[in-house]
Amino acid sequence: MNIAYWIVAGLLAFFYLYAGTLKVIRSRDQLRPMMAWVDRIPLPALRALGAVEILGATGLVLPPLTGIAPSLATAAAIGFTLLQIGAITLHLRGQDRRIALNTGLIVAAAVTVWLAVQL
C-alpha cells in the first residue's frame, strides 16, 4: 500500500502543484487558453484557489514523508475530492461541459484518501 500511495499521491501532488502555481503567478489572459472558466470567478478567488492547491499538494507529500501529523495527508486528499466536486459543479453550470479531467482527478483523490488511511 505504501508504494501505491506514493505513486498516486505523487502524481496528484505534482498536478496540483503545477496547476496551483499557474493560478498564482499567471494572468487571466495567460490562463484562459488552458482554463476557459477563469472569467467566471474573481481574480482573488482564483489566486486563493491556486494557493490552496499548492498547500494541498504539500499536505499530500510532507506529512507522510516526515512522519509529522501524517493524518494531514488524508485531510489534503479529502480536500482535493471536495475541490473536484466544486470544479465539476462549476463546469456543468457554465458552457464548458468537459469534465473528464475532473472525473479522473476526483477518482485519484478518492483513491489517495483510501490509501492514506491505510498508511
Give a short synopsis of this structure:
The protein is an all-alpha fold and 119 residues long. 79% of the residues lie in helices and 0% in strands. It has one domain (2-118).
Outline the structure in words.
This protein is mainly α and 119 residues long. The chain has one domain. Helix content is 79%, strand content 0%. It contains five helices and no strands. It has helices spanning 2-25, 28-31, 43-66, 71-93, 100-118. Helix 1 runs antiparallel to helix 3 (43-66), helix 3 packs antiparallel against helix 4 (71-93) and helix 4 (71-93) packs antiparallel against helix 5 (100-118). The longest helix is centred in the N-terminal third of the chain and has 24 residues, at 2-25. The protein is globular. The N and C termini lie close together (7 Å). The mean pLDDT is 95.
Helices and strands, in order, run as HHHHH
- State the low-pLDDT regions, or none: none
Count of spatially separate domains: 1
Backbone structural class: mainly alpha
- Count all strands and give the number: 0
Largest sheet: none
Beta-sheet strand percentage?
Answer: under 5%
| Overall form | globular
Assembly level: single chain
- Average pLDDT, all residues: 95
Helix content: over 70%
Distance linking N and C termini: 7 Å
**Number of helices in the DSSP assignment:** 5
**Could you tell me the radius of gyration in angstroms?**
14 Å
